[in-house]
Amino acid sequence: MAAIAIVGAGPRGVGILERISASVRELYPGELDVHLVDPYPAGAGRIWRDAQSPLLAMNSMAADVTMWTDASVVCDGPIVPGPSFWEWAQAGPDVSGWPADLVAELRAVTPSTFPSRRLQSRYLGGVLDSVVADLPPGLRVHVHATRATGLTKRAGRQVVALEGEPSLVVDAVVLASGHLDATPAPAELDLLAAARERGLRYIAPEQTTDTDLSIVEPGETVLARGLGLAFVDLVVLLFEGRGGRFVDGQYIPSGREPRLVAGSPRGAPYHAKPEYRLRAGRPPTPRFLTPEATDALPRPLDLARDLGPLMDKEIAFGWYHELFGGHPSLVALSWEDFLARYAELEWGTPEMEALLASAVPDPLDRIDFDRLDRPFEGLAADTLEELQPLVRERIAEDLRQHRDERHTPHLGAFTAMLTVYGEVMRVQGDLTAESAARDLPRWQSFFNSVASGPPGFRVEQILALSEAGFLRFTGPGMAVTLDGDGFRATSTAVAGGEPVRSTVLIDARLADPSLDRTADPLLAGLLAAGEASEQILVSADGVELRRTGLLRVRPADGAILDAAGRPQEHRFAVGPHTTVKVAGAFTRPGMNAQSLRYNDAVARAVLRSLPGAATAAA
């Protein structure tokens, strides 16, 4: 009897299980046991577990979340439809034993609701229950609510050591642990040591939901570096989480909150999530950045030089498809005439600029990549206080554009960007080391800022906190230094002003991936044994450019690569700690999502690795 262990039973692990269930009859003829290993609740996992603040919400709307394949998904395994979050909520899941607040939230959900993470936990648990209830004959699932601490080989099989339980002896292992904790980086350790010497407080990058914020005293000034989703969680927990309330767009303090000063190199919070629907339907992407187009390019690739113009043209195609199809009164050409000319021109040329200017009279209706990437560009003031209304004006305008139906092209671009992300990740192994070190982090940062923003109501709350004086922004170019009096924050937007001083600094972001500093004993053991390896970008002349901290895997199926670069044919890994990036563990329906396609490829490779599977597959 064959067996598989999936280490990590959150949405990534459950997604692999669902795809194994879908393909097992085709690829494996015998009985099969699948073991899910996770100390956190199976289905939800750590990030989406029920045991967290009820104030924390998803940054996706109920209608935009699914774990199931649908007719749009192009994969080798069978399509197995299932309910999106919204469809699950409409169907009325069994709520017996649920707390009253979650029942009330479920009853109030609409397609455009941003559900709480605790309610998402129930949806994900329901997905797992559905998968297990519909397992084909001969496939069994076992859940182990504990931690995997090691992975070794014995007599051709895989041995997974468990904390407090007997080891599992299996034929294949999938590591699906999601974001991994790591010990602080050397610079962070130095800052921790220096802060302790001076009696200061520093919180290094980590999951904000697990941070001990009791060290922050009411009324004191706190510096926060980072303006992404971890920052949004920090704001929720430090203000509403301490009893503050938002009433009619104003913040009513509890008296227990600090005063937050926040910034980052870009200086702007992530763009708000669009709160409207496409009027012209989903843009037919990919149109320009297709696999055929990228495969025809000479190798190795430079992302900015070779792919950049096609990437921009593809994203802009999504924008203009929605503008012309959804807002014909705002354009001066027919879609057919525009597209014929657009298709033949290169992005960024004077001819393309002339076409866009003549076809789209209002500059606000033209896509502006510089404005999307650096929305605070050009902001400047003599003092931090004078900067704040300028910052609020730009944040409020961004929120307006992501709510006002006039600006649905933002959603068209967002939709096309998901396609672009998948294609960039597909060919990332063909990039020069220099381009991978320089361009991939920039692209990931841009993608995150545009595609992974907070719900609009969170942006409203941020604006209310700023209006009330509890939250101030440094603007672009934030820099933090340490002297005898504490932390000092400056920015390029207030070049001549006095620095902000504080005795508390919070790095409001996840820890950078780091295989050599991982807190996961299983991965640490594989690395020490040479059975796993970190991606190190080395130039053509042998100079080390960057250690990415990512676990090297075979792009096609996630097979783990050892220190010599050889694939471990019975060991696989998926998730943000690997060299194959996918845009989230769950996805929007109808998107032919990269995450679902990759789950399918990995699951089928796992099944084919089992003893006896080759004969069945042939």
Automatic annotation (TrEMBL):
SUPFAM superfamilies: FAD/NAD(P)-binding domain (SSF51905). It comes from the Bacteria. It holds the Pfam family NAD_binding_9. InterPro entries: FAD/NAD-bd_sf (IPR036188), HpyO/CreE_NAD-binding (IPR038732), L-asp_N-monooxygenase_NS-form (IPR052189). This is FAD/NAD(P)-binding protein. Residues 5-179 form the FAD-dependent urate hydroxylase HpyO/Asp monooxygenase CreE-like FAD/NAD(P)-binding domain. It comes from Pseudonocardia xishanensis.
